[in-house]
Amino acid sequence: MSEKLKVGILGGTGMVGQRFISLLENHPWFEVTLVAASQRSAGKSYEEAVGNRWKMDSPMPEAVKKLIVKNVNDVEEVASLVDFVFSAVDMTKEEIKAIEEKYAKTETPVVSNNSAHRWTKDVPMVVPEINPEHFEIIEAQKKRLGTKKGFIAVKPNCSIQSYAPALTALMEFKPKVVVATTYQAISGAGKTFKDWPEMEGNIIPYIAGEEEKSEQEPLKLWGKVENGEIKKADGPLITTQCIRVPVLDGHTAAVFVSFEKKPTKEEIIDRWVNFKGLPQELNLPSAPKQFIQYLEEDNRPQVVLDRDFERGMGVSMGRLREDTVYDYKFVGLSHNTVRGAAGGAILCAELLKAQGYIAKK
Question: Is Lipid metabolism among the key words of this record (predicted)?
Answer without folding.
Answer: no
